[in-house]
């Protein structure tokens, strides 16, 4: 049997269930050739090509929240209300429909956990909880022994936390697992177990022994805040981060400037005029200049380039470090020219 990594592949929706307000889980059956087996891992994310509410095909990333074997996986999708792909999936993807999976990426799955990771802290907000839940599902069925795994989840309201009953069950049935939810908008009843009002602060962590591993998953601003706090409190803990920005659902728009910006490729005679409302990746593709890419959302690093000169605006990404950005490295899918000629190295 061959392990097939080539994309795209078709997937058929075989069931849909509501997880909580605004979140649905889709069970997908991957179509593979006879004798082939495709390797999709819980915690990784798949890139789906699907039309938005205006019918324009776009690629969006969704975490594999469950791998049920036999080429069956689950993804959980949150309605955003902005007319993007997630809203269209909510309205139109139903049992029997097919979608195109064009890739798999992401740096965190059960194999990211090392033998020495006995004490693990996971922090998520919103739909970012899909990654911790995907890992917990693998942990509860695996043979690795954990001393303690703590999940902290931040949400606006209790009824907006997906998988809550399953998380309660995991906590009850596994002595090594504890859950704490932080609710920003709902007013909580007095003495409600497992929940606190507001956002987690330093006091929630400062008296606890340092974890071996910290996993953070959520929006870019939330993840940045948590990374700064956690690295200050636990400087020696290993850190894994999966962050997403508005770039996953929205295209960055930059006001047009009077001067037309040009893009030059180092080592090439190629020079193109830039549409400043498009990312550098989109401009390169528009002009048939090849560049590696996959997620198109600032998550996978495949479109990493170096800005040799010129002025750019960067959409937030969590794949480049402060040092890399200082050295001119950028993700083409998250970078925009602003009225000055740019020289890049692909």
TrEMBL record:
InterPro entries: 2Fe-2S_ferredoxin-like_sf, 2Fe-2S_ferredoxin-type, Beta-grasp_dom_sf, Cbr1-like_FAD-bd_dom, FAD-bd_FR_type, FNR_nucleotide-bd, MRET, Riboflavin_synthase-like_b-brl. Residues 261-346 form the 2Fe-2S ferredoxin-type domain. Residues 6-111 form the FAD-binding FR-type domain. It holds the Pfam family Fer2. GO terms for molecular function: iron-sulfur cluster binding; oxidoreductase activity. This is 2Fe-2S ferredoxin-type domain-containing protein. It comes from Chryseobacterium piperi. The lineage of its organism: Bacteria, Pseudomonadati, Bacteroidota, Flavobacteriia, Flavobacteriales.
């Amino acid at each position: 049997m061959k392990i097939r990594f080539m994309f795209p592949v078709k997937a058929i929706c075989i069931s849909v269930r509501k997880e909580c307000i605004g979140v649905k889980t889709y069970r997908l059956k991957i179509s593979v050739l006879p004798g082939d087996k495709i390797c999709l891992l819980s915690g990784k994310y798949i890139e789906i090509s699907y039309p938005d509410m205006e019918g324009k095909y776009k690629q969006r990333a969704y975490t594999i929240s469950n791998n049920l074997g036999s080429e069956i996986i689950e993804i959980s999708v949150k309605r955003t209300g902005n007319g993007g792909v997630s809203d269209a999936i909510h309205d139109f993807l139903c049992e029997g429909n097919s979608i195109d999976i064009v890739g798999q990426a992401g740096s965190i799955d059960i194999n990211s956990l090392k033998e020495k990771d006995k004490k693990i802290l996971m922090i998520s907000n919103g739909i970012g909880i899909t990654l911790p839940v995907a890992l917990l599902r693998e942990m509860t069925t695996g043979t690795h022994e954990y001393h303690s795994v703590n999940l902290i989840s931040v949400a606006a309201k209790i009824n907006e936390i997906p998988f809550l009953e399953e998380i309660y069950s995991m906590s009850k049935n596994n002595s090594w697992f504890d859950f704490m939810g932080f609710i920003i908008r709902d007013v909580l009843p007095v003495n409600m177990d497992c929940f606190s009002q507001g956002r987690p602060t330093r006091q929630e962590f400062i008296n606890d022994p340092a974890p071996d591993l910290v996993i953070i998953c959520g929006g870019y601003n939330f993840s940045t805040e948590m990374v700064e706090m956690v690295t200050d409190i636990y400087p020696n803990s290993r850190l894994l981060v999966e962050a997403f920005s508005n770039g996953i659902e929205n295209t960055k728009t930059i006001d047009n400037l009077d001067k037309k910006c040009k893009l030059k490729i180092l080592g090439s005679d190629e020079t193109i005029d830039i549409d400043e409302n498009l990312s550098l990746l989109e401009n390169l593709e528009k002009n048939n200049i090849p560049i590696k890419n996959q997620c198109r959302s600032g998550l996978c690093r495949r479109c990493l380039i170096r800005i040799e000169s010129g002025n750019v605006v960067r959409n937030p990404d969590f794949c480049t470090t402060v040092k890399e950005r200082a050295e001119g490295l950028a993700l083409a899918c998250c970078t925009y020219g602003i009225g000055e000629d740019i020289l890049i190295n692909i």
